[in-house]
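lol forgot to send this yesterday, sorry. struct tokens for the thing we talked abt
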């Protein structure tokens, strides 16, 4: 039986996004976001020991061609 798809609304006017929100915005997996951060393709700020946040200007720069 297929899993139900949840509709999630993300406020695009936020100053920063979690990795989970970025996954939903650009349509990739968490592993892909982790790799993009590690390779420097997507800039992120480390908050604490394991948590990253992606500032909105970094996401904008990534999404622009």
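and heres what i got for the seq, position by position
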């Amino acid at each position: 039986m297929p899993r139900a798809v949840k509709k999630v609304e993300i406020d695009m006017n936020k100053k920063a996004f979690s990795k989970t929100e970025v996954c939903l915005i650009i349509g990739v997996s968490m592993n892909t976001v982790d790799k993009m951060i590690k390779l420097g393709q997507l800039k992120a700020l480390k908050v604490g020991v394991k948590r990253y946040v992606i500032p909105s200007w970094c996401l904008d720069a990534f999404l622009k061609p």
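The first helix runs from residue 19 to 26. anyway ping me if u want another try
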